[in-house]
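Recall from the previous lesson that a structure prediction takes nothing but the amino acid sequence as input. Here we apply that procedure to Inner membrane protein YbaL from Symmachiella macrocystis. The sequence below is the only information supplied.
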Amino acid sequence: MDIWQLLFEIVALLAGALILGGVFARFGQSPLVGYLIAGMLLGGPGSIQLVKSEQEIEVIAELGVSLLLFSLGLEFSLPRLRKLGNKALIGGILQVSVTLAAMTGVAYLYGLDIREAVAVGAMVALSSTAVVLRTLMESGEIDTPYGGNSLAILLVQDIAVVPLAILIAVLAGGEGAREIAVNVGWIMLTAGLLIAGLYILLNFVAARALGGLTLVRNRELTTILAVVIGLGSAWVAHLAGISPALGAFIAGMILGGSPFATQIRADVSSLRVVLLTLFFGSAGMIADPIWIASNLFLVVGATAAIMLVKLAVTWIIFQRLGQSPAVAATTGISVSQIGEFAFVLGAVARTVGAITRETHLLIVSATIVSLLLSPLLLSYAGCIGYRLAKFVFWGRSISPPDALTTAATGHIVIVGFGPAGRIAAAALRASTIKVVVVDLNHEGVKKAKELGFDGHIGDATQYEVLEHARVRDAKAVIVTVPHNRTAVMVVEAVRGLAPNAHIVVRSRYQRDVNDLAISGADIIFGDEQEIGQELGRHLREWLAAHDKDAPPAAEPEDPQQDSSPNSDHK
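The prediction returns the following tokens.
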């Protein structure tokens, strides 16, 4: 088709997603719902048919899924899983497994064959990471017991996306046990060869070719490396006849062990956002507003049944693991919706022929409805969970779900680990406070790790890098970068993510103090001021030692102290 027509339709779909995403975000909904509805209104059956290149856009959007799985691979970490605790981790694994089995059983009883029932069970077993985490963080409930449970479930579900995609592909590909075993063996062999090839490529070829380059001066090279590795692995996986998402996930997992993982994640985020917006827009084209209106009771009934089953399964699992009834019920409400990964697994199921169009249309419609309901349910999850627990356990004393909260991380983040950052960190070595260092210089991060601190190579002006350093949970953030404009951007980003954090900034020149104060710094130490004070102190001591007749000199006043914007420290 005409490339300019395709370009127009891509721009129209993105513009519609921008407008509707903004509208839904304005009213407390997830922008993702706006992307889906934009696709539903602009293209597909029952729409205004402004976007007609559905297949072409869907092919482009598949790259967004690959980059999404690539990012999940970058986040994959065994230490991160262990930090959740055994009970939360076991609860997350059981929640995915039991929900998959339960929903497969419900779909089978509804009349679907076993392969299609498994595909449906896999699609609806996962919850919405984007909606749940955003709502819990905005409401400050991420550190409650049910917030911790929800975080564990969502992390396990993110990891489960790849095995579930493989499960769908394997079940659709063979007619019997032998064919399934052959498919599993081929997938394992291909994955193993891909891991080995990527390991050799990154540790020998790329290391020799890029080893002498610094991230500070050659930022674009890490972005190119990430895209080549991520999308190249997806292409290799497709060529081998397995899921491209699996190839991208493996690539991310291998790159995740490199010191550049944090910055790579930030650098590909913009491209991933654009492609994923196209993906969700194209997924929305599947939904037919006329069909939904004609089958409204079926859609509402399916949505209610799925959400109630997920609520019940999660409630029972976490109560059996020792959680209070209210906490377990609130956890179930928090993760009862169908998540955005339903569209990813649905795309896999459609590609391999594991699900019919009618069934896929029903699940897509139910997912959109559940995502619409989620922000409202999450806002009152604690109250609803408490009342449900009191109703079920009538006559029993029930504690509110947020009666006990977990301790916040309360760590300290140091941005820039040059001489100033190292001197500031020296005072923290003897304390038990966790220190996280963010620096673009590989040597600075290496030094931080040698001193026992956590370190991430990355540009702290980017939100993704700061989020990876968990700035939202930080007690204090120390910014020591010498460049004023960069420091201002870092402070603004930190203040946006952590409104209550104590921000301490080093200013190279006194003229820059006002800019840093306006950007949100709590206290500013100027190099010129500190050096001037040290010079004055030395001069007073020298005069006192060498001029016996000289009267003791008083501490000089800072000529800018009264007018300095940081004189009123928080």
